[in-house]
Amino acid sequence: MSNTNCTPQGPSTPPVRVELHQLHAVATTIFSTIAFVEATLAALAEQPAALAVGLVKLPPIIQDLGALAKSCLAAAANYEETERKLIPEIESKIAQIAPVAAAAILGVVNLSGVREAAGVEVKRIESVVGNAARNIDSLLTRLRAVGTIGDIRIEVSLAGDEVPGGRPGRHYTLYLPGTQSWSLLPGRSVFDLRSDLNAMTGFTASAAERATREALEMAGFGSKDTLTVVGYSEGALVGANLIQHGLEGRVLGLVSIAAPIDALNLPTGVRVLNLQHSNDPVPMLDLAPQHDHPNWFNWKLEPLGLIGHSLESYQASIDALGTSSLASLNQQLDGLLDQGRVQIQDWSATRIR
Amino acid sequence: MPTILSLATDMLYQATGVVVDWEGPSKTAFERDLQRLIRDLEEADKYITLVAIAELAVVAAA
Questions:
Q1: Rounded to whole angstroms, how far apart are CA atoms A114 and A206?
Q2: Residue A19, class by beta-carbon neighbours within 10 Å (0-12 exposed, 13-18 middle, 19+ buried)?
Q3: Eight-state DSSP code of residue A258
């Protein structure tokens, strides 16, 4: 077996010579460690003093562990082509530990009962008229913008325009971002770890879900209107919960990227496009097999990197699709998106302390 | 009863056992980083456990 280089101190440091199977073992061990440290934080949710100590002590350790593991994986990415066959082994190992770690975290969270009933406040912060997103690439571009301008984006078809779904009302496209804050303590953003855990456990509607429902209502979404939800990670899970809990208007579809939505039962009339990387541990958190339903379209993307959860990595995988695959993927969006001009609204969504 | 953090620390000890076989100038730095993280985790575990026990004691006494 050939050696590779692992440079945890940065590219200027002379490399370590290491056997690949050792790199494999160290990387997977560090990822498992991170899962256990995160589980500790979840377990302390109802002990505020201990949680406060944990929130001071543990996030820097998680960050350093992540950097150490990533440096090894970056070295792995530099393998010679003949050694690339070993990378799926590492991915497979990570895929094996992810559900176990997820089960541990969820079990602890279920016991500790992370719940919240804090009020939320939504405000429209910007509204412009622009072209509607018409394909998967433009959906991802818009998702990347959400979270930088506001917390929620809603696009509304213009009055009189023909809309998907053939209803007399307007068509709304809702964009929901991934986790913005990794603190369990209630903070500014509703798209945080606290909402994430609530969305996963399903005890109560998360702050993110309540804020999204309120923003939709304030944007005028009503019984004559249609809706398409586009979400990344936590955003897709929140969107799926919103659909499951019911909305006044008709939901046409959900475009879910990198989210653990397989355990949810959505109305059969809702078309689901479920995009997941084969090595992304986050969609495995629900520990459920993928749906086998005519309206539920699962698309496994082949990742270019070793850990494929970032929205950028999904964008890169879609960019790398061949013309026919991309056309096939975009075909799944037929009837879900506006074709003309839309009003693009960005909303802030915060907790009320 | 071991805490979750002590299990995490045990896993890192396993990783240091693998790194021992590595060769090269930055091996020491990698080992040093791992050992520092082990110490940090052990310290965090100690403080969190103490505060958690104290918190439970206060609740029990109330």
A1: 10
A2: middle
A3: S
The model's pTM: 0.64
Does B57 lie at the interface with A, CB-CB under 8 angstroms? no
pLDDT (tens digit per residue) in B25-45: 567 777 888 899 999 999 999
Cβ-contact A318, A124 below 8 angstroms: no
Of residues B11, B30, B44, nearest to A8 (C-beta): B30
Report the C-alpha gap between A71 and A16 in whole angstroms.
Answer: 12
Amino acid at B5: L
Cβ–Cβ contacts within 10 Å for residue A14, how many?
A: 13
Closest CA relative to residue A79, chosen from A66, A69, A90: A90
Are the C-beta atoms of residues A324 and A160 closer than 8 Å to each other?
no
Q: Chain B neighbours among A 13-72 (CB < 8 Å)?
A: 13-19, 22, 25-26, 29-30, 32-33, 36-37, 39-40, 43-44, 47-50, 53-54, 57-58, 60-61, 64-65, 68
* H helix or E strand, kind and range, residue B61: helix B27-61
What is the C-alpha separation between B47 and A307, in angstroms, rounded? 32
Phi, psi of A65 (to 5 degrees): -65, -45
Mean pLDDT of each 10-residue bin along chain A, 353 residues long: 43 48 71 78 78 87 81 56 46 49 48 58 92 94 88 92 82 91 65 71 78 96 95 93 92 94 87 88 68 87 72 89 93 92 94 76
φ/ψ region of A47 (left if φ > 0, alpha if ψ in -120 to 50, else beta) reads beta
Q: Do B51 and A50 touch (CB under 8 A)?
A: yes
Tokens of A265: 């039962």
Question: Length of chain A in residues, anyone?
Answer: 353
Task: Answer yes or no: do A47 and B55 touch at CB < 8 A.
Answer: yes
A270: Cβ contacts below 8 Å, ≥ 6 apart: A243, A251, A252, A253, A254, A295
